[in-house]
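Translate structure to sequence.
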């Protein structure tokens, strides 16, 4: 285990994040639609997300137990910083989508670590969400135009955005209830 976190706070935070996204979609639909139209090619936000992913990955390379590969720790740390800096500098095609995908992949490990030794039956929802994040992260890192075509463009329509917002609120409420010990 890399992260020593309990399942309840992780479920609570994930639920609050889903609830926030759903509330933004429901209460500010025009702003959300404008944001979604600009998100895939937003270079500033992409650099911020890629920087966060780089910092997270470099921190992991510097701090986790690498076992028999500990002798190359400094090389991995420098390689992650170098590759992250090059991505921030040179990546012009869908930087926000790729940055978000990297954060989804790194965040899935937090969810899986939190659910690892838990005996609560609701942990399967956290594990399922983690694997959905992994699938989305891998898919959208490799094919970021799919995020634009399959996520952003349909959500520009108000009916789809509204139903997605309600779905995100429902998922968020479920995770919050689970995080508070109600499930």
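Result:
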């Amino acid at each position: 285990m890399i992260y020593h976190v309990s399942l309840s706070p992780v479920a609570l935070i994930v639920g609050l994040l889903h609830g926030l996204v759903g509330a933004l979609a429901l209460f500010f639909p025009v702003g959300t639609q404008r944001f979604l139209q600009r998100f895939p090619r937003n270079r500033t936000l992409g650099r911020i997300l890629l920087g966060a992913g780089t910092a997270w990955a470099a921190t992991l390379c510097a701090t986790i137990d690498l076992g028999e590969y500990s002798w190359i720790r400094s090389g991995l740390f420098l390689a992650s910083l170098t590759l992250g800096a090059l991505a921030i500098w040179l990546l012009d095609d869908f930087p926000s989508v790729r940055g978000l995908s990297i954060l989804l992949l790194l965040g899935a490990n937090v969810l899986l670590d939190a659910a690892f030794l838990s005996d609560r039956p609701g942990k399967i929802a956290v594990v399922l969400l983690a694997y959905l994040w992994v699938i989305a992260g891998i898919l959208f890192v490799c094919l970021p135009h799919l995020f634009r075509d399959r996520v952003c463009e349909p959500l520009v329509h108000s009916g789809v955005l509204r139903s997605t917002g309600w779905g995100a609120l429902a998922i968020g409420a479920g995770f919050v209830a689970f995080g508070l010990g109600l499930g």
